[in-house]
Here is the input.
Amino acid sequence: MPEAEAIRLAQQGDAAAFERLYRLHSRRVYSLCLRMVSNVSEAEDLTQEAFLQLFRKIATFRGESAFSTWLHRLAVNVVLMKLRKKSGNETSLEQVTEPDDESGGPRRDFGGPDLRLAGSIDRVNLQRAVEQLPPGYKTVFILHDVQGYEHNEIAEIMGCSIGNSKSQLHKARVRLRELLHEAIRAKAREERKAAGTASGSSGED
Amino acid sequence: MSSVGCNEFVAQMGSWMEGEREPAAQAHLAHCEACRSLAADIDAIQSAAPTLSVADPEPPARVWAALRAQLVQEGLIREALPPPKGERQPWLAALFTQLPRPALAGACLALLIAVGFGIRGPVSQWTSRAPAFPLSAQLDTAEQTTVSSFAGSNSAVSASLHQNLEIVDHYIALCEKSVRDEPQNDAAREYLYDAYQQKADLIDMITERGDSIQ
Here is the structure.
């Protein structure tokens, strides 16, 4: 059943159409939720809540935007609301970034020529770094760089301007770079420490 | 050609990464090691990002089961049209195609037993349905055990648990009524087994959550 047909039938309450829409989009929505909250149970609840809101409102969908964009907007709102409740703050999307990144000037800790990320990024350390991003940065980074949405779609999903989406993405990448550098340095320190301990032990023998 | 400084280059990084390479920015990059390093790192991050979604899983079947039960409860979906043969949910299709009916019932019970429930007799709280459905009675018993295991736990969790079970029970009651009304209707029986499976999934999920809560 094509998506447009499933939407039309779902608007009439057809059970199979609801399921079809769920099957078409649940993986991406679940993936978004999982990356945003890094907790399987919470991601399941958020996925369910996003689709529930979608199906409650589906009769009002008129096709002004792509269905997946509309669904992702609902999902992002559900996730951000959850994160705000968790943090106890009623903050706007603009505020879920880091204050020192809003000062305007670029940071000068660009890293030296001896520390390049190329070749040293794997899924695990990148995922750990993404988990540490503020929610606003994280959302844009996941939507654009991981899930492949364009800035105009992200602007619609997040209710912001295209320029704001680009700006958030850039800041997210720069922050990720810092986090990855920190992780690499920490790993290097641990390895040196381990090597020192090993040589100390062998010296005692 | 006017040159740009580091601050200007960094401000233009978004456009640079999208392929808009102004000559002035290229000139700056040619002699600025710090900005070259920044651009290379951002490029590496951008290239690595799609790998995060490679192994993304499907949500577990219980998410759809709970969602569907909620939709039924809210009256958002119609129950009339049975799915055509061969277009059933994948997670159920496997059960239905690999197992005959009695085996399916056994599989549901095995699932319940496997998650650690004891069978301790009839349940008064949830037995408004006719006793003509033995699998239903077994599920009710498992449900009662689950509910009692939550006694004294977080009241909000307990309330949510009761609410979700009531939704699924309502769905099962509707399906059982359909089977009683039309005992020869295969679609009605399939819906009933679907409802039982949803309840088994829900109890399984509650048990998992309960382990993490308590």
In short: Residues 186-213 of chain B form the longest helix (28 residues). Residues 80-109, 111-131 of chain B have pLDDT under 50 and may be disordered.
